[in-house]
Design a protein that fits this description.
- The protein is α+β, with helices and mostly antiparallel strands.
- 49% of the residues lie in helices and 23% in strands.
- It has 2 domains: 45 residues, no CATH class; 44 residues.
- It has a 4-stranded antiparallel beta sheet.
- Helix 3 runs antiparallel to helix 4.
- The model has no long low-confidence stretch (mean pLDDT 83).
Length: 97
């Protein structure tokens, strides 16, 4: 049985290709090497992007598009709003890095 300290250290990694297609998930203290090397984007705990192979220009364009999509998303689609907000936050972090 896992202790609460071990559970807290576990992270969820999500891997995506260049087009945004989901390649898979892994859990642990570090990313799966195989999926990490195949992925264009890697996101930790659905919040922090730790790998992004796009140029700053492409990231800025993606950010503008996500912000536009967010403004056009109906309030009734809360799941999409939350998803876009997480994506916008991650893109802004990449631009700041």
């Amino acid at each position: 049985m896992l202790s609460s300290a071990n559970i807290e250290k576990q992270k969820q990694f999500a891997y995506y290709d260049r087009t945004g297609k989901h390649l898979g998930d892994s859990h642990g203290k570090k990313p799966c090497d195989t999926l990490y090397h195949k992925a264009h984007y890697v996101v930790v705990n659905q919040e922090d992007m730790i790998k992004n192979c796009d140029s700053k220009t492409q990231i800025a364009e993606d950010l503008r598009q996500c912000e536009k999509d967010l403004l056009q998303t109906p309030v009734s689609d809360m799941a999409e709003i939350l998803y876009l907000n997480r994506l916008i936050r991650a893109l802004r972090q990449c631009l700041a890095a």
